[in-house]
Amino acid sequence: MNKALEIAAAKYKLDLISSDKLKEDADHSLAAGIYSKSLAELATLDNPIMSEAGPLFESTLQELSIKLPSPDEALNIILHYHINNIAQGNITPREGMKLVIDEVYYPGNLHEKTKKYVGDSHDIHELLGNFYSYDDLEDRPDEVSFEGKYGKEAKEALGRYIVDLAKKWVEKHSG
């Protein structure tokens, strides 16, 4: 399966993708050798609007035998994608965690699913807690430390720690 289309399907299910991005993903998929009639039509839309792009995208998924995920499956697909990108160094820890918050935490209402710690329903409570440490390090760089470091060095150390947490999360939740 085309990973870009899987991610696009998950974001589509959660209304987190624009019609322009669907067209862009269609272009990339065609360039990668993936073809369907609807995918080609989607890629050639001028000034795509969701009322046109959405049905073409859904037809593309059917033609390529890609299942449109349920909302919970979509959240998990996006969560794995972003945390894996953090772990692999494809995105900075801070940017990656911002995407987790914007595309998983809030759309999935994870605060409502909290058992003890925010994010624990998806085992991301440590990642979330450490992400918010960036704010403290920026707001009070001479007072707040991480691993005995202050300022820029503290933020860099925090970033490395979040990458390590992401690697552990991926290892634990793969399969």
**Mean pLDDT reading:** 95
Main sheet record: none
**Helix/strand order, N-terminal first:** HHHHHHHHH
Unreliable stretches covering 5 or more consecutive residues: none
Mass-distribution shape: elongated
Strand content: under 5%
* Helix count from the secondary structure assignment: 9
- The number of strands is 0
Helicity level:
55-70%
Distance between the termini: 16 Å
What would you report as the Rg, rounded to the nearest angstrom?
A: 19 Å
Q: SS-based structural class?
A: mainly alpha
Report what the structure shows.
The protein is mostly helical and 175 residues long. 65% of the residues lie in helices and 0% in strands. The protein contains nine helices and no strands. Helix 5 (71-88) crosses helix 9 (151-173) and helix 7 packs antiparallel against helix 9. The two termini are 16 Å apart.
